[in-house]
Amino acid sequence: MIKLKLNGVSKAYGATKALSQANLDIEAGEVHVLMGSNGSGKSTLSKIVAGSVKPDSGEILLDGQPITITGPQSARSHGIAIFYQELSLAAHRTVAENISLANLPSRAGILVDQETLEERAQHYVTLFDGVTGDGFSLDAVIQDLRADQRQLVEIMKTLSTEASVIIFDEATSALDRAQVDRFFEILRTLKQQGRSIIFISHRMDEIFAIGDRVTIIRDGKIVGTKRIADTNPAEIITMMVGSHDEAGAKPAGHSAPTGAVASALSVQNLTGRGFKDISFTVRKGEILGFGGLHGQGQSAVLRALFGAIPPTSGKIDLDGKPLDPANPRQTIRHGVAYVSGDRAREGVITGRPILENVMPIHYLRDRMKLAHPVVSAGKALPALQALRTKFAGLGFPISSLSGGNQQKVVIARWLIDRPAVLLLDDPTKGIDLSAKTDLFALIRKLAEEGMGIVLYASEDAELLDNADRILVFNGGSIRRELTGAERTRYNLYQAAYEAA
Question: Is the CB of residue 239 less than 8 Å from the CB of residue 218?
C-alpha cells in the first residue's frame, strides 16, 4: 500500500533546478533509501515533504489523498517527521527536555510537567539502552555530551513524534557500529508497525543492511528506483553518475607541473580532531583536490594546516622548511592562506567597509599599526580587479555586495601579499555561476604562476574540472588517489561510496 506519493514535484532557486518533476512512491512498512551525490536534490525533496521548503509545483498525496504542507507544523499535523543533518538541539537544556522539545507536557498550560516529561523521555532512552555511553542520562545537558550522544538525542526526539512517515537524513553519520545496529533494530520494529521510513545515507553497507527499495537522484531528477534485493553497489553508482562515457575524465583547467618540481607543502602522518594519518605533497604550480563525501575530514585537515585546530601529531613542511601550525596568525606570516566557504562566519567583517575587509591580512603580515587609506586603496584595488569584483566604492559596506562579490573580497585579501600555499575550503558555496567562473580562472592563473593550491569542493564537477590530482577521503583518512585518466566522476563516486 502506498503511504506517501509525490507527483511532478519541482523546486528551483533562480536558474538552478534543485528538483525537477520528481515522482516518488513510499510504501507503508518500508525503508525507502534515497541516494545521490552532494547537491543532487535529496535534501530538497526531504525538506519539501517535511514542510521547510515550499515546492514550485507538483502534488503530495498521503494515504491517497492530496495534502498541502504549509510548514513544519503542518507536516507534523499530517504525521510526518524529519531528522535533519544539522542537529536542532537546545545546547543548554537536558536530554529529557530536548526529546520533547516540540511538545513539552505542561500543567495548567503554564508549567512544564516534569514527571510526564521524564517518563516520556525514558521510553525513548530505553530503546538505546547499553549503547548511549558514559555520562548519558535524562538530566545530562546537551552541550556536555559527545557528538554521537547528541545525535542519538536527535534521533530520540524524532522518534518521539510517533509519526507515520519519518525521514532520516544522514542520521548515522556520527554513530559507532553498536549504535547503528541498535538504530536499525528500531527501524525494523517501525516497519513491522506499518510506518514508512525515508532513509538517506552515503554508506553502502547500511543501505543494503536496512533498505527495501532505493531511489537514485541525479542533478535534481529521479533516474530510477530499484528493490535492494535486485541491485548491487556497482549498479547504484552507475545510476548516480550516468554511464561510464558520461563520467569520463575531464582535463584539469591548466597545465599541471611535470618533472622534478619542488614541493610547496608536504604533510606526513598528520592526525588531529576529525582526521588521522594524513600524508600528501602539493607541488608548486599544482592544484590538489580533496574529494569524497561531505564531512569526511577534508575541512578538518585544511583548518589544521591553517592552525585553526592544531594537529596532535605529524609533520608539515612549507617550502621545504618545518611548519608548526600553532595558530592562524603564525601560519599567515609563514605564507599560508585559507579561504572558507562559510563567509558569514569565517570571512566577511560585517558592518565594515569593503576596504577594511580586504586589508586585514596585509596589516597582520606587515605588523602595521597605522595605515593610510590612499595607500591601502592602492593595494586593495588590483586584488579586487583580478577577481572582477563588482562594487560601487571601497567605502561602501560589505553588506552592499552580492554573496559572490563578498566572497571575492574575502579571497582578494590574500592576494595583496602572495602566499606560498592557498587552502580553499569549499570556496564557491552559495555563490553564482559567474562568480565561480571568475574564481576558478584566477585559481588556474595562480597555479600557473607557481602557487601550491589545495581545493576541497563539495561539488564533484569543480574537482574534476580543476584539480590535477584528487585525494578521496572517508572516515577522516585518505582512501584513494585519482590521477590522469582515473579522474572520472565514476571513479570518484566509487572510491567514496565503496569505502563508505
Answer: yes
User: Of 104, 124, 125, whose CA–CA distance to 113 is shortest?
Assistant: 104
Burial 355-380 (b: 16+ CB within 10 A, else e): bbbbbebbbebeeeeeeeeeebbebb
Per the CB < 8 A criterion, the answer to whether 367 and 389 are in contact is no
Half-sphere exposure of 95 (CA within 13 A, CB side): 26
- Rg of the chain's alpha carbons, rounded to an integer? 25
What's phi and psi for 229, nearest 5 deg?
-65, -20
Most confidently modeled range among 85-89, 91-95, 361-365: 91-95
Question: CA distances (Å), 413 to each of 138, 379, 426, in order?
Answer: 48, 10, 17
Q: Where in the chain is the domain with CATH 3.40.50.300?
A: 2-241, 263-499
Dist. CA 387–CA 357, nearest whole Å: 15
Stated as kind and residue range, the H or E segment containing 341 is none
Architecture of domain 2-241: 3-Layer(aba) Sandwich (3.40)
At 64-89, the pLDDT tens digits run 999 999 999 999 999 999 998 778 89
CB 42 within 8 A of CB 34: yes
User: What local confidence, expressed as pLDDT, does residue 406 receive?
Assistant: 80
Look at the alpha carbons of 324, 330, 332, 335 in this order and tell me if their dihedral is positive or negative.
negative
Pairing of strands 196-200, 106-107: unpaired
Beta strand 165-169 with 80-83 is parallel
Report CA-CA distances (Å) from 22 to 68, 210, 217, 342, 500: 16, 24, 9, 30, 27
DSSP of 189-246: HHHHTT-EEEEE-S-HHHHHHH-SEEEEEETTEEEEEEEGGG--HHHHHHHHH--TTT
Secondary structure letter of residue 442 according to DSSP: H
Residue 40 sits at the vertex; the CA angle it makes with 90 and 207, to the nearest 5 degrees, is 75
Tell me which CATH code domain 263-499 carries.
3.40.50.300
Rounded to whole angstroms, the Cα distance separating 11 from 217 reads: 14
Q: What is the pLDDT of residues 227-239, one digit of tens each?
A: 999 999 888 888 8
> Which of 91, 216, 179, 190 has its CA nearest to residue 142?
91
Where b means 16+ CB within 10 Å and e means fewer, 125-163 reads bebbeebbeeebeeebebeebeebbbbbbbbbbbbbbeb
Name the burial class of residue 272, with classes exposed (0-12), middle (13-18) and buried (19+) by CB atoms within 10 angstroms of its CB: buried
Q: How far apart are CA 380 and CA 373, in angstroms?
A: 10
pTM: 0.70
